[in-house]
Specification:
By secondary structure, the chain is mainly alpha-helical. It has one domain. Helix content is 82%, strand content 0%. It is globular and about 50 Å long.
């Protein structure tokens, strides 16, 4: 299991260096920009979409066929991908929260849990679709979800935003716990799909 997670990190850092550079640039701009939340949103949304990109890369490289020869189960493969995603989203949410703190934003616990929830929302929706239909077919759905999530975060800067008004009334612990439950359900769905999938 640990080896699979390490493999994902290694593959991410070697195959998606340009994306990592983009994240660093967004982070730097967010730290000095007046619109910190707009730019910081990318720090949790893009890492959340990275797992689907890795699945796409693994399909092209026939990694799954090779992995079936290793002493790991299909459930281990899915679990490693979800743990990898959680680590990235948690790290991105922490960085985004620190950027907000630099700009004098208070209630950092709420901000952190909000970013974690937003970051997990993308893979919660896209990973089961990716395993079900393949990365190529699920790509456009993934892009739509990422754009929709980004626009939602931007809209939350507005005091008149209905989404912002709803979220501010929810405890950060309830918000985070609810998203984690949905993420766990997503893992269950992805594992069930992968168990019955023909690996070529």
């Amino acid at each position: 299991m640990t080896a699979l997670i390490k493999k994902d990190f290694y593959e991410a850092f070697t195959s998606f260096r340009s994306l990592i550079l983009i994240l660093l640039v967004f982070g730097a701009f967010a730290a000095v920009s007046l619109e910190a939340s707009f730019l910081a949103a990318y720090l949790v949304i893009l890492p959340g979409s990275l797992a689907s990109s890795l699945v796409n890369l693994e399909e092209k490289e026939k990694w799954n066929s090779y992995c079936m020869t290793l002493p790991v189960t299909r459930k281990d493969i899915i679990t490693a991908k979800y743990i990898f995603t959680m680590i990235l989203v948690a790290a991105g949410a922490l960085l985004a929260t620190l950027i907000n703190a630099v700009h004098g934003v208070s209630d950092l616990l709420y901000i952190y849990m909000m970013y974690v929830s937003i970051g997990l929302a993308v893979p919660t929706l896209t990973l089961p679709l990716t395993y079900k239909f393949g990365a190529d077919k699920a790509r456009y759905i993934t892009m739509f979800i990422i754009i929709a999530m980004t626009l939602s975060v931007i809209n939350m800067d507005s005091d008149s935003s209905g989404l912002a008004m709803i979220l501010t009334k929810v405890s950060p612990f309830v918000l985070g716990a609810g998203m984690i439950v949905l993420f766990a359900l997503s893992w269950f769905v992805s594992a069930a799909i992968y168990e019955g999938k023909e690996i070529r």
